[in-house]
Amino acid sequence: MVNDVMKKNVMICFRTSEKVRKSLQRISDEQSRSLSGLVESLISRYLQSYRRDNGDDISAERRQFERKKVSLPAFIGSTDSKADAFESGIVQDLSFSGIRFSLSRATKLEGLENQHVCVIFTLPNEHQLVTVKCLPQRVDDRGNRVQVSAELLDVDFTSCKALQSYLL
User: Fold this and answer.
1) How far apart are CA 77 and CA 117, in angstroms?
2) Which of 22, 48, 79, 166 has the fewest other C-beta atoms within 10 Å?
3) What ranges do the domains of the chain cover?
4) What is the DSSP annotation of 89-132?
């Protein structure tokens, strides 16, 4: 079941300065996302912050998109790593905005919280690789594994289409 948050059936138009538009466009280009997607993300983050700061119960809206539990083998590395520096891991769940994966506790990827990470995997019944770049938000020690929850930053077009088909 898809959250009501995902239903985009209302259009909001507003005027802004050329300077603000150019700044937003530059950021959306850097993040390989649409200007509309960037603005929606910024507004959603502001609303969450506003509700939290004003004592509103935001527990029902903690996640913008539903997670789908999976167990998919993956290659995980820093976005500037060479191919042979990637490590094996397991993607544990996916959503349109995030990913959770685990690595061996003996990982050589130091300081995961402070670097962009690339995760490469295949979806069930698919043959094409899905490649996502993400920013870890939380890293937990789980015994012999390290579990990482990350925000998706950049997904190439083909991978994005595959994720959409799989998650909907």
Assistant:
1) 6
2) 22
3) 4-61, 68-167
4) EEEEEE-SSEEEEEEETT-----GGGS-EEEEEE-TT--SEEEE
Percent of the chain whose predicted confidence (pLDDT) is above 70: 84
* Phi-psi map region of 39: left, alpha, beta (phi>0 left; psi -120 to 50 alpha): alpha
CATH hierarchy code of domain 68-167: 2.40.10.220
Mean pLDDT (whole number) for 82-108 = 86
The residues, any chain, with a CB within 8 Å of residue 145's CB and separated by 6 or more, are 102, 103, 104, 105
Residue 18: φ, ψ to 5°: -60, -35
pLDDT value of residue 55: 66
Determine if the pTM surpasses 0.90: no
pLDDT digits (tens, 9 = 90+) for 126-164: 888 999 999 888 888 878 888 888 998 888 888 888 888
What end-to-end distance do the CA atoms of the chain give, in Å?
Answer: 8
